[in-house]
Specification:
The structure is a homodimer of 456-residue chains.
Chain A (H helix, E strand, L loop, with lengths): L6 H9 L4 E2 L2 H7 L14 E4 L3 H13 L4 E4 L16 E4 L6 E5 L4 E4 L5 H9 L3 E2 L12 H7 L6 H4 L6 E7 L5 E5 L11 H5 L8 E8 L1 E2 L4 E8 L2 H13 L6 E6 H11 L3 H4 L2 E8 L3 H12 L5 E4 L3 H12 L1 H6 L3 E4 L9 H15 L2 E7 L4 E8 L8 H16 L15 H8 L1 H14 L12
Parallel strand pairs in A: 2-4, 3-4
Antiparallel strand pairs in A: 1-2, 5-6, 6-10, 7-11, 8-9, 8-10, 12-14, 12-15, 13-14, 13-17, 16-18, 17-18
Helix pairs in contact in A: 8-11, 8-14, 14-15, 16-17
Chain lengths: 456, 456
């Protein structure tokens, strides 16, 4: 801990924190996320905030006494962005989980950060509305965490990422001051884009305690198709053909052969017998069925078999194949979910390259992809007792980042940098950008108490 | 000029700037924008940059000698964001106007900042694509200026503002270093959102010298309707009904009675005889006609008369009414175009309130609005010899800002703060945000040479 406070005095300071505990069982629950990374030590304690005032008091004290604070939502992150160790305290925001207001006329929701993504969607659904960002973890991830990572999901290519759905934030700054960013209007350009600066900053610039979010009308209709292909290159070519056909599917998901095999093993399906790659497409809106037919015509020349959902039950069965991917892999061992992105037309190249990396390193890699925006999730699976963030898995991860970059891509499309991707950060953004980002960090958090060592 | 350089030495420094002139006729052309504001003096000179290297050399020298630089695109701004006076030099980017690359498969364009919005759209159109942000000034405004103000236009509610169409920027910083922001991928969350920080920063953080922009498939179909109403409140209620009907029109434009009168006067039409307010709606995409009928059913209960375009010629005639608004007003006198925004459901309140302000101040105010996102352009018209940024017009402007804010709104939806809205900036963003924005400014431009006194 970079503290100017003696140990005895420190204990006194910690005791002054609201809703604070050092119970080892509680600390065990908040020490890391779902990335597979386990910090070497436990954090010094956890504040279980229930109000803006709790957050203000925590940061004011922490800033005064130079105590590093790791803000935390539901702990579903995949980059160790909320992992904490000795010398740090955790600021847990799960209890701030109220939906404060839904305005169905204005189509906005005002929520606390601990609200789960799926709970917001259920509440919005009662008014015929929905909240567009839909990470695979929707049932268990919080809006605060979604904002911290600028989370995406399956609907981004049509509806944008979290940034496109945030109108205003209330943020507690490192020194305990309260900032309101943005406005309650759809558009505003008064000064710098302070919303965007906090979205994706992984808790390093401030702690979001309230968000005004844009809801959208639930589509009046949705249409679903799926197809099997002889190999991933054919599926990727089909995805490119969909984009070239001027369609804007709300969902365009690719699943590779190894992943299909894992799903078959876990659920008793026979996907892999039908193809070495699977593509799921949904269109929505007033022209859903017309647009579905355009998608279909684009896919057909590349596919071995095409399935058209005739009703919602059949549609649900097709979507289920994609949704089963991660749970099926988790049954095989410890899973680390990658998040590289490439320009959309290089999808086939990177999927093929990842298969080569799996062969070269001897690591099992399974890939699903948001094909419409070139964002892939190559998943490394190791046996339960094996480390996932060092040795051959780390080597494979590094090679995947380098491959993505060599194709004009990025090391993270929607999960964030956290702790795990620090080694590759500067290679991607460059030294000038790194310098500026650290200047911004110092301007907001001069004593570096907010999630130090993460994101940038 | 906040310079530590003697006058003789300064002349020498200026002489070292690339493509530099002090010709008064040239200076006259670059001293201001289309806001109606005329700076009291002429700038010291203008650099007519033709390359990144010209920009690097200019900023390096300016930073070293503390010479304030006003970056400038096509000069179509409406907030005096590129106005310049004695002690400042202008960095004119109009000559950097090449479309460097259009990739129709990836659906991106790489352009220099001086490319005109309409020229990019024409080039994209050859591939069945379009660039979504469409300010009314599309034919004469530059992409660099669009980025500087985060420009919007008529299609924002469906397609987003400039921010949603920028993937990557090359920026020359105050000290001459070159920064690349973002990536060539649709999604990326590596570090802070540096794209968003520059978009809308009005040339105060750096000078954009290249942009990678997202293009979108041109809609396969577009459908158009329009309606006349007995008053503005009825038209605003109809616009709210469209939103409530879960439609997402690509265009939803409101024109008030006084503006209809001005159009009639200028073009010989008879709009105002038909109603005291006009609403234009367009839907697009695969379900354009189905969605148009939904819009129609939402509007009908409020309207006195409804018109459905049966073909592109009829559609064009309806769109023309909206497009004629600004040119018609400009025939009446000097025009200052306001840009307030409110939550969408408060549209009727603000339009009525603006009419009251016109009565109270004796100033003529004409209003058009992007109804789907609550962004209004109340236009003040004065006689050619009258000042437009002081006296009663300024009083009316201030009252409109206060009205917008009292309704939960903003003082600028898409034009920016520039010089003209400085007085109201802090009232909107608050002291904490102002402080942070100035810290960001200092982190990027410690000697405050980039467009000082603008935006924040």
């Amino acid at each position: 801990m970079t503290s100017n406070t003696s140990t005895g005095h420190l204990a006194q300071v910690l005791a002054g924190l609201p809703r604070f505990t050092q119970d080892p069982a509680e600390l065990e629950l908040v020490r890391t996320d779902r990335s597979g990374y386990v910090p070497p030590t436990l954090p010094d304690g956890v504040v279980r905030a229930e109000s803006v005032q709790d957050v203000v008091r925590t940061l004011t004290l922490a800033n005064e006494h130079r105590i590093p604070v790791v803000p935390r939502g539901a702990g579903t992150g995949l980059a160790a962005g909320s992992s904490a160790c000795r010398g740090e305290i955790v600021l847990d925001l799960r209890r701030m989980n109220r939906i404060l207001r839904i305005d169905p006329v204005e189509q906005i929701a005002v929520v606390e950060p601990g609200v789960l993504n799926a709970d917001l969607n259920a509440a919005a659904g009662e008014y015929g509305l929905f909240y567009a960002p839909d990470p695979a973890s929707t049932a268990i991830c919080s809006i605060g965490g979604n904002i911290a990572t600028n989370a995406g999901g399956m609907r981004c290519a049509k509806y944008g990422v979290t940034r496109e759905s945030v109108l205003s934030l209330t943020v507690v700054l490192a020194d305990g001051r309260v900032l309101v960013t943005g406005t309650q209007t759809i558009k505003a350009v008064t000064g710098y884009d302070m919303n965007a600066l906090f979205i994706g900053s992984e808790g390093t610039l401030g702690v979001v305690v309230e968000a005004t979010l844009r809801l959208r009308p639930a589509p009046v209709a949705t249409a679903t198709v799926a197809a099997y292909f002889r190999d991933v290159a054919a599926a990727a070519a089909a995805a490119s053909a969909v984009v070239a056909a001027r369609a804007t599917p709300s969902v365009l998901e690719l699943v590779d052969g190894p992943t299909l095999g894992a799903i078959d093993l876990a659920t008793g399906t026979d996907h892999r017998r039908r193809g070495e790659a699977f593509l799921l497409a949904q269109t929505d809106g007033f022209g859903a069925e017309i647009e579905r037919d355009v998608v279909l015509r684009a896919i057909e020349p590349f596919a071995d078999a095409v399935l058209i959902a005739k009703d919602p039950v059949e549609a649900e069965a097709l979507v289920q194949a994609r949704r089963d991917a991660i749970p099926s892999l988790e049954k095989l061992g410890r899973t680390s979910i990658g998040d590289v992105g490439v320009p959309r037309h290089r999808l086939a190249e990177i999927v093929t390259g990842i298969q080569q990396i799996a062969q070269d390193t001897g690591v099992d890699i399974y890939t699903v992809a948001h094909a419409a925006d070139g964002n892939l999730h190559p998943m490394i699976v190791v046996a339960e007792h094996e480390p996932i963030t060092e040795g051959a898995p780390k080597d494979a991860l590094g090679r995947m980042f380098e491959l993505a970059r060599s194709l004009g891509g990025t090391l993270t499309g929607e999960h964030g940098v956290g702790l795990l991707k620090q080694d590759w950060f500067t290679a991607e953004v460059g030294q000038v950008s790194r310098d500026l980002q650290h200047r911004i960090k110092r301007a907001f958090d001069p004593h570096n108490i907010l999630n130090p060592g993460k994101a940038i």
